[in-house]
Design goal:
single chain, alpha+beta, Beta-Lactamase, Alpha-Beta Plaits, six-stranded antiparallel sheet, four-stranded antiparallel sheet, 13 helices, 12 strands
Length: 470
């Protein structure tokens, strides 16, 4: 509003000084006062230009200023009234014509101004529509990219998920939990996450694995199951999402700003603990991620159960100090338990015995530690070949390793032995850059639909070994 007033005042001042300038010039021509003898009267011509450029009002204003200056009697002795009558008789017709022309030019000016205004409004509308469409296009493009990326991620996720789930199969519970939480981080982009195990002795949840924690977080590694969201999830066997804080007042009272998504971890219909995501990108907080993580944790349950049972069974004072593999006595105990479980659950598994021939000669030439080191490398390759599903134990002799392979029958064990021999024989084994030839024989047996004792199971595998030594 102030700008419009300043603009109006500026135009009026310009018009006044334009008329005043013509008046000063007119003083230089005393014989042609008012420029009435000129072919084109500058006073009237500037009024017409002003009307065409600024509009009708300013044209009339310019004409008014010019008439006022002309009415000043500078070069005459006539009476003022007589002088004005003389001017009227001289210029009335011209002034009337100029008034009409100013009106017409003002109409033309207003028409052009209206057209320009409409054009500006139209261009503004087009610009706004263009910006809106660009925003919509940008949004749609972003959605399309997200959907395309999601489809590609889903395609890649099948392979990645399979690989990650296989990595969870370990005899070491810590490694299993570490693989689980790293997989959760990969698929949810979690910045902070933790796994909590319920301890029966203290009746509390204890943090057993985490990712993204800082020094302040590690101060809170034990939680009550009665006054925390982690405990609520454990007690109720339900998934927690932060949106539930708006629905349940009891959960909002427990909230300590450390739970976004929390999942129960169930082993054989028993709640083992919980997995909690404490920080993640807002864009990844959606039902898709929640369902994906629920499936992932459900798949990880079997691996956690197996590792937990293994750790509960194995006595670490009977672990070989060089290889860190359990002893043969623990293998016998382990197989006895697995046979009992197989009978109850109608599950299958196989036992494979691996024997490294010429073991004593190799130790004499290269030393026990180096041979065991190369043996562990061999076992690592077999572990990868099985999809990280097999467990290793020492057997009766120092050069013998017992392999437990779950969920595989006699034919599957036979195929695995053939593939293992292929891997072992094709790899170039070296010690200090010197080629070493490893000669391995394998024997195997399986637990299937028929009951079998642990002695009979192992005797069948040993017989296959003995047959290859003849």
């Amino acid at each position: 509003m102030i700008t419009e007033r300043m603009n109006l005042l500026r135009k009026m001042v310009e018009i006044f000084f334009l008329s005043f300038t013509l008046f000063l010039i007119n003083l230089l021509f005393p014989g042609n006062y008012g420029f009435f003898d000129a072919t084109i009267n500058p006073y009237f011509f500037t009024a017409l230009l002003t009307a065409a450029y600024y509009g009708r009002l300013f044209g009339y204003l310019n004409l008014g200023f010019s008439i006022i200056f002309i009415m000043i009697p500078i070069y005459t002795d006539l009476n003022l009234i007589v002088y004005w009558q003389f001017l009227w008789e001289l210029a009335s017709i011209q002034i009337s014509i100029i008034l009409i022309i100013i009106y017409l030019l003002g109409m033309i000016h207003n028409s052009f101004v209206l057209q320009i205004k409409n054009q500006r409004l139209y261009m503004k509308k087009v610009s706004l529509d263009k910006n809106r469409l660009q925003k919509e296009l940008s949004t749609v493009s972003a959605v399309n990219r997200e959907l395309e990326e999601r489809v590609l991620r889903q395609q890649d996720s099948v392979t990645a998920l399979y690989t990650q789930v296989k990595a969870m199969h370990s005899q070491n519970l810590s490694k299993t939990l570490s693989a689980l939480i790293s997989t959760v981080q990969k698929f949810s982009w979690a910045e902070k996450a933790s796994i909590w195990k319920y301890e029966k002795e203290s009746k509390k949840l204890v943090m057993v694995a985490n990712v993204g924690w800082d020094s302040d977080d590690v101060l809170n590694t034990i939680e009550s199951i009665d006054s925390t969201i982690n405990g609520w999830v454990y007690r109720n066997d339900r998934i927690f999402s932060v949106r539930m804080l708006l629905e349940y007042e009891n959960l909002s009272q427990m909230d300590n700003k450390r739970n976004i998504l929390t999942f129960p971890i169930t082993l054989s219909n028993t709640i083992w603990g919980v997995l909690n995501i404490e920080a993640m990108p807002f864009a990844k907080y959606n039902l898709y991620t929640e369902k994906l993580l629920a499936i992932l944790i459900d798949l990880a349950g079997a691996a956690i159960e197996r590792a937990s049972e293994y750790e509960a069974l194995i006595e670490y004072n009977e672990v070989n100090p060089v290889t860190n593999l359990p002893s043969v006595s623990q293998f016998f105990t382990f197989i006895g338990n697995e046979i009992r479980k197989s009978s109850e659950n109608q599950s299958i598994f196989s036992v494979i015995l691996l024997e490294l021939t010429e073991f004593d000669e190799l130790i004499e030439e290269h030393g026990e530690k180096r041979i065991y080191k190369i043996l562990l490398l061999m076992l690592d390759k077999l572990h990868s070949l099985s999809g990280n599903t097999i467990d290793f134990f020492h057997y009766k002799e120092k050069n013998q390793i017992a392999i437990y392979y779950p969920n595989i029958d006699y034919d599957g064990a036979s195929l695995f032995c053939l593939e293992s021999l292929g891997v072992i024989n094709s790899y170039k084994w070296t010690i200090n850059d010197n080629r070493v030839v490893l000669d391995v024989i394998l024997g195997y047996s399986s637990v299937g639909s028929e009951d079998i004792s642990s002695d009979d199971l192992l005797n069948l595998a040993e017989n296959l070994l003995d047959m290859q030594k003849v």
